[in-house]
Fold this sequence. Notes:
Elements: E1 12-17, E2 27-32, H1 33-37, E3 41-47, H2 53-65, H3 67-72, E4 77-82, H4 86-96, E5 102-106, H5 111-116, E6 119-122, E7 128-131, E8 134-139, E9 142-148, H6 159-167
Parallel strand pairs: 3-4, 4-5
Antiparallel strand pairs: 1-2, 1-5, 3-8, 6-7, 8-9
GO molecular function, one term: thioredoxin peroxidase activity
Keywords: Antioxidant, Oxidoreductase, Peroxidase, Redox-active center
Function: Thiol-specific peroxidase that catalyzes the reduction of hydrogen peroxide and organic hydroperoxides to water and alcohols, respectively. Plays a role in cell protection against oxidative stress by detoxifying peroxides.
Amino acid sequence: MIKVGDTLPSATLQEYSEVEGEGCSIGPNPVDVGKATAGKTIALFALPGAFTPTCSAKHVPGYVQHFDDFKAAGVDEIWCVSVNDAFVMGAWARDQKTGAKVRMLADGSADFAKATGLTLDLTGRGMGLRSNRYSMLVKDGKVATLNVEAPGKFEVSNAETLLAQARG
Length: 168
């Protein structure tokens, strides 16, 4: 499992853009994790699935609500990563009104989740291999803090915990 001090694994996530601009076309666009985190501080949180109860009611809204606080604490971007396709993440972004506050990034084949060692097997519940629920502060591609939830819990990966860590 990835730990504090490690570099994020090489992976490509997908992001759905509804408008063209800054080199992004409409539709899924690749996001190279290494290039996208270089020289930046990223508040990254991951969760088992889009539109799931805890994720939609608590996890994403907390990060959207605290966007300005994260910026004030020196965070350049907030990322939400889930094992869903880019189209689902785009629809979820609209539903959650993330706008330019939270980048909703798809890990469609769970490659990033597998590479971090933070997978959650929900095959028995018909959801297949997913990402565990966690948050991390990433500085220039390296993990500065890591908060991994126990199964079925939502206690340490919330926006307030990661914000306190970002404030140092």
